[in-house]
Write a structure and sequence with these properties.
With 155 residues, the protein is of the alpha+beta class. Helix content is 16%, strand content 43%. The strands form three sheets. A four-stranded mixed β-sheet has the order 5-1-7-6. Strands 2, 3, 4 and 8 form a four-stranded antiparallel β-sheet that branches. The mean pLDDT is 92.
């Protein structure tokens, strides 16, 4: 089983959420939340701020911890064909500066503000639904229940 610890940004302003278009080397693009892998020795709090800057060109501050999501993706559904566990730390963030732009040397081709009412029609990562659920519910335990995977949602 592979394992990944990642930090994700949920930025909601004026009925819109900041999403990033992820285009893998092979396959269709999907919309996801800004964020990504926590580097060795890095604090997830610092990682989410770094990832926003790298992927979107924006400067952000963390408003609060929303919660932690841990899910196992079966080998048949995982990109590498190996069972994978992703532990995501989700933060509510506020953009304080910068300008949206593509990731210069990565797989994020654009970042856009998207109306919350339009999200359900997008081909998106399950991370989007998890993050939006955490932001809406603000569970006292920081744990979100399972998010159904299907339709336009991808791992």
């Amino acid at each position: 089983m592979s394992f990944r610890l990642a930090a994700y940004a949920v930025c909601i302003e004026n009925g819109r959420v900041l999403l990033a278009r992820y285009v893998p080397p092979t396959g269709e693009s999907i919309w996801t939340l800004p964020g990504g892998r926590v580097e060795h020795g890095e604090d997830p709090f610092d990682a989410v701020i770094r990832e926003i800057a790298e992927e979107t060109g924006c400067i952000a501050t963390v408003d609060r911890l929303l919660g932690v999501d841990s899910r196992v993706i079966p080998a048949a559904e995982a990109r590498a064909g190996v069972e994978h566990q992703n532990v995501g730390v989700f933060y509510r963030v506020v953009i304080t500066g910068g300008r949206l732009r593509p990731e210069p040397t990565g797989e994020i081709t654009e970042s856009v503000w998207t109306a919350l009412s339009d999200v359900s029609r997008l081909r998106r990562s399950s991370l989007v639904d998890v993050g939006l659920s955490l932001a809406q519910v603000l569970p006292a335990t920081g744990h979100v229940g399972p998010v159904p995977i299907g339709g336009l949602i991808q791992h």
